[in-house]
Every structure is written in C-alpha cells, then in structure tokens.
Design a protein that fits this description.
The chain has 334 residues and is mostly beta strands. It has helices spanning 4-14, 186-190, and strands at 50-58, 68-77, 85-96, 99-113, 121-136, 154-169, 173-180, 207-214, 216-219, 222-232, 238-248, 252-262, 279-289, 292-301, 312-321. It starts with a helix and ends in a 13-residue tail after the last strand.
Length: 334
C-alpha cells in the first residue's frame, strides 16, 4: 500500500483510538464459537478428542491493504482415561497493509470434574508463545521525507506472549474469562515518540475476553445456541459480538450475529465514532460426517466503510481424529 494515511486509516479502524501509532489489535474471527481456543487457553482439550481446525479470514474484501488472517490449531487430551489434562497448539499469521505478525502459542488446561456424572467441568488454562511483529517501511510513503518514525526497509521485533483463562461448562451453558498478551510492553505503547525506532513501538496491548453461551433444546431435530463475546483492550472501544445459531438434526448450523462497539469506561478514544466497528454477520456450518465440518461466514459492515469494500469472508474447516471420547459433554455444540 503506497499511501501512508490510508494505512493509518486502516489501523484506526482496527484500533479506534487517537494519539498513538501502534500495531493492530488482536485478530477477530466471526466464527469464534467454533474457535474458542484462539481466545481462551482453558478450552484446550474440551472436545476430549484430538481436533484440528484451520481458519482463513479476508476482511473488507476489495480494499487494498485490508486485513488477511490465517490460523491453524490442534488440541486434545493427554490422558484419555481421566481427561484432566488438555493441550493445544496454534499458529497464526496476520497482515494489515504494511504491518504483519506471525505467532505460535502452546496452551495447557487442567480440567476439574465437578460432579459424579462428569457433566460439569471447570478448566484453568495457561498459554505461552512468541509473536513476530513487522512493519514494511518500503510500503509507506510519508509527507515529510526522511521521517524517522518510518523504518527503511523491514523492521520487526519478537515479543513473548503469556495468556491465562478459565472455562466452565455444563450440558446447557458455558462461561469463560481470559487475558491475552499479558507480557505486552504497554509502557512503550503509551510513550510513543516519533524519534524512536519503529521497532520499539510495534506492540500489542493486553486484552481481556469474556465469552458465554447456552443451548436450548426445542425439539429432537432443532436446538438453539445463543452466544456472546466481549473483547476489551482498555484503550479503544469495547467490542462485543452477539450470535444466535439454529442447529438442525445436529448437522446443519445456520445463524446470524451482530458486532458492535460500546463506549465503556473513560478512555482516550472518547471522541472517536465507534460505529466503524459495527457489522451484521451471517454464519453457516455443515457437518459432512461426525468428524469433519466446514463453516462459512460473511460480515456486512453497517458503517460508512461499507461503500469502500465488499464485505468480509471467513472459512473454517475442522477435523477430529483418534479415539472418540468415552463420554461427552455436548462436544460439538460448545
């Protein structure tokens, strides 16, 4: 992307606050209900069988330099008999204009059985990893030549990542809370200086995620699954996703969602139009068989951005393998 201000515009759309120039915030997936491990390490091993999932997201299609994200993960149980120890591994690649990031995360969950029937579980999760953040100065054009805030060529830094989470499930509802990027250098993010090297300011802020959902059995062939996710970075607007899915014969999932931004707490962004984050989402998922599924979602932006792009497309594929669990707690619903 050759225009510096267009890149800044994209950054502001993803991280809507002013006065700072820092790397884009955590990636988002419209199909988060099928990808809980990406936001909560305590989810590792929940399905009690080994599960591989990949996700491809093309955000704001048709807009040059718009975000593109790819992720692949695997998680499962280390002890099939007791099912107390879950592990998961994720690889993520994300690109936005001149910015890019690549990360790897190893997650571990300790799962407590809370009743004799093993229908209620409380899991505690930890995640460790590293991320490489990069900025391609050659893709930027500044108004003033020799601007020291833009690197010559490619500038990058590797940052450690540490995350924690808690996840509680029953046959009919779940709730989870997690914190990501706990080792982020928030001081350098708050103390951005144009004279310092850009690599010193390629940082993420810490993020807090709250997720919740339930299952309503309407009939033997129809179940309703409402869910929500709230994301907080303590700097920009609070982002919230609300979804409702209909599950037909445990094979076809059809639903819709709404993403919006909320002005909570007193933050630096208060004069920013948070409507730039709003979108209506359509989601479909199909189980080809008991162990293979494919999902697709489309985001329709309801803000002024809608006139400059062709929506957001996201595809997910999930495959279960190995020995099926001896018992399950709605493994393919939550």
């Amino acid at each position: 992307m050759k225009c510096f201000y267009k890149v800044l515009l994209l950054i502001c759309l993803v991280s809507p606050f002013t006065g700072q120039v820092i790397a884009q915030q955590n990636i988002q997936f419209s199909q988060y209900i099928f990808n809980t491990l990406s936001v909560n390490p305590a989810y590792a091993g929940y399905k009690e069988e080994w599960f591989v999932q990949s996700a491809l997201r093309n955000q704001w299609a048709g807009l040059k330099g718009a975000p593109k994200t790819a992720q692949i993960s695997i998680d499962g149980i280390l002890d099939p008999q007791d099912t107390k120890h879950g592990v998961g591994f994720q690889l993520t690649s994300d690109k936005l204009g001149a910015q890019s990031s690549n990360s790897a995360t190893l997650n571990y969950a300790f799962r407590l059985q809370l009743d004799g029937a093993d229908t209620r579980r409380l899991s505690f999760g930890l995640g460790v990893g590293a991320a490489q953040y990069s900025l391609d100065g050659g893709a930027l054009t500044t108004v003033d030549g020799g601007d020291q805030s833009v690197p010559v060529g490619n500038s990058s830094r590797i940052s450690p990542d540490f995350r924690v989470g808690i996840f509680y499930t029953t046959p009919y509802w779940y709730i989870g809370l997690s914190a990501l990027d706990l080792l982020s250098d928030t001081k350098s993010a708050d103390d951005y200086r144009r004279t310092s090297g850009m690599d010193d300011n390629i940082v993420r802020t810490r993020h807090l995620y709250f997720i919740a959902g339930s299952l309503i059995n309407v009939s033997p062939d129809l179940r309703i699954r409402p869910s929500m996710m709230i994301r907080e970075d303590f700097k920009g607007p609070t982002n919230a996703d609300f979804n409702v899915m209909g599950i037909f014969s445990d094979r076809i999932w059809l639903g819709a969602g709404y993403r919006t931004s909320l002005k909570l707490l007193k933050k630096e962004y208060q004069n920013t139009d948070v409507s730039s984050q709003s979108a209506i989402i359509g989601i479909a998922q199909f189980y080809v068989n008991e162990r293979f599924r494919i999902g697709y979602s489309y985001d329709y932006a309801t803000s002024k951005l809608n006139g400059y792009q062709n929506g957001t497309h996201e595809i997910t594929v999930g495959i279960a393998f190995g020995k099926a669990p001896k018992a399950s707690i709605c493994p393919r619903v939550f």
